[in-house]
Specification:
Elements: H1 3-8, E1 10-15, H2 21-41, E2 46-52, H3 58-65, H4 71-74, E3 77-79, H5 86-89, H6 116-131, H7 138-145
Parallel strand pairs: 1-2, 2-3
Helix pairs in contact: 2-3
Organism: Parasteatoda tepidariorum
InterPro entries: CRAL-TRIO_dom, CRAL-TRIO_dom_sf
GO molecular function: phosphatidylinositol bisphosphate binding
């Protein structure tokens, strides 16, 4: 909503700590669509996209998405080794990072969006839907109608 963000841009910091392979698989279609849509329709200027705590299997997801990203945007992705955040500090000073990343800012929380229990419930519902391929089985329909 802020036009200043469209002009001056923003920096993304993506922490993949705790990411599971199931999440990459589940998000693959969404990642493909979202990547193309964001690149074409987002009125914001993304200065840099820093990725930390990268699991070894993330390469699979990156190989899927990378060809869909323009060379200009691709150059803005910066992957940092998980063991050493000093390369991150070269781009983002610790003053603006949370303590869990060696920073001095207050701890990061998603509480203003949703509680952990709400997020867990949504994630469970999402995976349950994926496990049934988005289709409620006849057995579940019959049980629900009783």
């Amino acid at each position: 909503d802020n036009p200043v963000n469209q002009v001056t841009g923003f920096v993304v910091l993506l922490d993949l700590k705790g990411l599971r392979i199931q999440q990459i698989i589940a998000m693959s279609k969404w990642m493909l669509f979202g990547t193309v849509a964001l690149q074409r329709a987002c009125p914001c200027f993304m200065k840099a996209f820093h990725v930390i705590n990268i699991p070894s299997f993330y390469k699979i997801g990156w190989k899927i998405v990378k060809p869909l990203i323009s060379e200009k945007i691709r150059k803005r992705f910066i992957f940092h080794k998980s063991q050493d955040l000093n390369s991150l500090y070269e781009h983002l000073p610790p003053d603006i990072l949370p303590p869990e990343l060696g920073g001095k800012l207050g701890p990061f929380t998603n509480d203003h969006w949703a509680s952990d229990s709400q997020i867990d419930a949504l994630e469970k519902k999402y995976y349950d839907q994926l496990n049934t391929n988005g289709i409620i089985s006849k057995r579940k329909k019959a049980a629900a109608s009783r």
